[in-house]
Write a structure and sequence with these properties.
mainly beta, SH3 type barrels, OB fold (Dihydrolipoamide Acetyltransferase, E2P), 3 domains, 5-stranded antiparallel beta sheet, 16 strands, 52% strand
Length: 187
């Protein structure tokens, strides 16, 4: 069982027989009332977004998933194809399964695919990924100490704000939840 104190973005819950993923949550407490938790949920099968309010400390059923390491092979723009590393079975995930993760997927890399009742339902990414900068405006000399940023395009097509000292060819670590630059990686 999962308590509201265990909530975090990306956590999976089973509510009324449906599988949901927490998109966002917020704790609220008023002076005379019990604390409440407002959560925004995404249905893992339909993609429907729902907002609910629960009492703090309420318990939820945690669904049992099977996780398989699978290699990302390619996309045709509407479907993403993965191959099981052990059985070589191929699986196709749609946009509902991938939602928001496509800019972080790199061909021939391994990812965890979540299965529920024998069907693939979602993809689980690491908290951060390292990607190479393919296009960036040149930085102005002398601005390397300030907190100014510029746009940089990464190898997957994702555009993020980076410090001025980041240049084409650099490897940068990006948070997969917020799509924000974390740090430049040294070789």
């Amino acid at each position: 069982m999962i308590s509201t104190s265990d909530f975090r973005k990306g956590k999976k819950l089973k509510i009324e027989g449906q599988l949901w993923e927490i998109v966002d949550f917020q704790n609220a407490r008023t002076a005379q009332r019990r604390a409440k938790v407002t959560i925004k949920l995404r249905n893992l099968k339909t993609g429907q977004i729902l907002e609910r309010i629960y009492a703090s400390g309420e318990m939820f059923e945690e669904p049992e998933f099977e996780q398989r390491n699978m290699q990302y092979m390619y996309t045709d723009g509407t479907a993403w194809n993965f191959m099981d590393n052990k059985t070589y079975d191929q699986v196709t995930l749609t946009e509902e399964h991938i939602e928001g993760y496509a800019p972080f997927l790199m061909e021939n890399q391994d990812y965890r695919v979540l299965y529920f009742e024998g069907k693939p339902i979602s993809l689980e990414l690491p908290a951060a990924v390292v990607l190479t900068v393919t296009d960036a405006e040149p930085g102005v000399k002398g601005d390397s100490v300030s907190n100014l940023t510029k746009n940089a395009t990464l190898e997957t097509g994702l555009v993020v704000k980076v410090p001025l000292f980041v240049k084409v060819g650099d490897k940068v670590k990006v948070d997969t939840r917020s799509k924000e630059y974390l740090e430049r990686m040294t070789n």
